[in-house]
UniProtKB/TrEMBL annotation:
GO molecular function: DNA-binding transcription activator activity, RNA polymerase II-specific; transcription cis-regulatory region binding
Name recorded for this polypeptide: 1205_t:CDS:1
Superkingdom of origin organism: Eukaryota
UniProt-annotated stretches for the region Disordered: 1-57
Matches recorded under PANTHER family: AP-1-LIKE TRANSCRIPTION FACTOR YAP1-RELATED, TRANSCRIPTION FACTOR KAPC-RELATED
C-alpha cells in the first residue's frame, strides 16, 4: 500500500519501495476544470455572496440601483412582448379580412 508523503515533512513515511517519494500529480491537465474545495470552478458574472454585506453606502446604492434597473428593463421587455403578440394577432386578423374582401371582389367581378 502506498501512502503519499508531504515533500516538506521529515517524519517517517511508510512506502512500498525504498525510492524517494515525489508529490503525486494528476495525469490530465484539466485540473482547473475539476471542482475541489481548494479550487472551485470559477463562474462568470457577478459573484453574489449572501454572507457579505456591502462595505460602503455607495456600494449598497449601486447594488440597489442595479436591481431596480434590471427589474425596470424586465418589465419593459415584458410589455414589449405583450404589444408584439397583440399586434401579431391584429395583423393576422387584418390579413384574413383582406383575403376575404379579395375573394368577395373576385366573385363580384365575375
Amino acid at each position: 500500500m502506498h501512502i503519499p508523503c508531504e515533500p516538506s515533512s521529515t517524519s517517517y513515511c511508510p512506502t512500498t519501495s525504498s525510492q524517494p517519494q515525489t508529490p503525486s500529480t494528476p495525469q490530465n491537465n484539466n485540473t482547473s476544470q475539476q471542482p475541489t474545495e481548494a479550487n472551485p470552478i470559477e463562474k462568470r458574472g457577478r459573484k453574489a455572496s449572501a454572507t457579505t454585506m456591502p462595505v460602503s453606502k455607495k456600494h449598497y446604492q449601486n447594488i440597489t440601483n442595479q436591481r431596480i434597473y434590471c427589474q425596470r428593463r424586465a418589465n419593459y421587455i415584458r410589455n414589449l412582448e405583450i404589444k408584439v403578440s397583440t399586434f401579431e394577432t391584429l395583423y393576422f386578423d387584418a390579413q384574413d379580412e383582406i383575403n376575404l374582401l379579395r375573394e368577395k371582389l373576385a366573385l363580384l367581378e365575375e
